[in-house]
Amino acid sequence: MRQLIFCMVVMSLTAIAGFAQEPPPPPDMPPPPGVERGMGVEKELMRMCETLDLTAEQKESMEAAQVEAQKAIIPIKAEIELKQIDFRTEMKKDNPDRAKVMKIAKEINDLEWKIKQTDIDKKLGIHSILTPEQREKMKNSHRKMIINREKFEMKYD
Q1: Which of 13, 23, 79, 118 has the smallest C-beta neighbourhood within 10 Å, fewest atoms?
Q2: How many domains does the chain have?
Q3: What is the pTM of this model?
């Protein structure tokens, strides 16, 4: 009888250990329609230039706006990473200083807001470069992209 109980306990523990393991990673999902895997800013910009029939001057202005935004964002992202290290360091302490944690969190939030502002400025700059017809094409392209993304997300939910 003891052997039977012992065997049942061992089997139960084995079964429980099997369920406690991490689930397998999700299957490699394809990117949404109209988006290439690893589509960088440069490819997106090139696709936009082709779609909108931009002049050489417009292309140059858009590329300059993109480069300017990237140069502004890189040091901000680096600063965010440093602040995140400070945040994690403080949170690992036995008695984290609430005021210090909140201050760092606010600083990170402010830096993220700077990135958002830079992105908005870039978009406004691009908007001013485009003709009314090109703006309309861009709106339609964005709508299609959003619809495709929503269909894709529903497919894999």
Answers
A1: 23
A2: 1
A3: 0.64
